[in-house]
Amino acid sequence: MKNGMLTLYIIRHGETEWNKEKRMQGRLDSDLTEKGRSDAGLLGERIKDIDFKRIVSSPSKRTIYTAELVRWAREIPIETDERLMEIDLGEWQGKVESEIREHYPAEFDAYWNRPESYESAGGESFYDVANRVASFLEDLQKTSSEGNVLIVTHAVAVKALYMLCRNAAVEHIWDPPFIHGTSLTILQIDQDRKEFLLEGCMAHCE
């Protein structure tokens, strides 16, 4: 018996106060900005006619709030899965980028320019994130073989997903597209075949 098609609508949470301040969040959290809330509402409007079977979010406050705004009036519970959380940035969390660049110059350079050799001070590597996202995806395919599923997560988790679906190496994790707040990526999974129908799209904000 051939399964139907599973279509994932993958979004990054809306802009937060810390995003605006270029402050690294990781596992810490900050509130959505007015723009973040407004963008999530616009995305909700854009996909209001999609029939979602499930909504799965990272347990962070910023993703759950985004999921609530995008869900609109649908009476679908928001499930959470820790494997969708942002990369754990250890000692960098809560610090602004300029501060990190100053105190961890080699690690900061590796994070953006040589991700395969990046080692976190007390947090996760990109490999760690890729492994948990892969495990999430595998389980999702077992529990939802078809239909539309809305996934609300974070930039590095979305990047890891691109990398996994393209069988790319970790050094390519920052390859385009750029993942803006509330950007929409649509991934279609047909058994072993994975195809991106839309990548990091921000048409709802234009």
Automatic annotation (TrEMBL):
Coiled-coil blocks: none
Residues at the active site: 13 (tele-phosphohistidine intermediate), 86 (proton donor/acceptor)
Q: Does the keyword Zinc apply?
A: no
Pfam families listed in its UniProt record: His_Phos_1 (PF00300)
Q: Give a Gene Ontology cellular component term annotated to this protein.
A: cytoplasm
Which parts of the sequence bind substrate? 12-19, 62
Q: Which UniProt keywords apply?
A: Glycolysis, Isomerase
Q: Its domain of life?
A: Bacteria
Q: Which SMART domains match?
A: PGAM
An MF annotation (GO) of this entry: phosphatase activity
Q: What PROSITE patterns does this protein's entry cite?
A: PG_MUTASE
Q: What is this protein called?
A: Phosphatase
Name the species this protein comes from. Answer: Sporosarcina globispora (Bacillus globisporus)
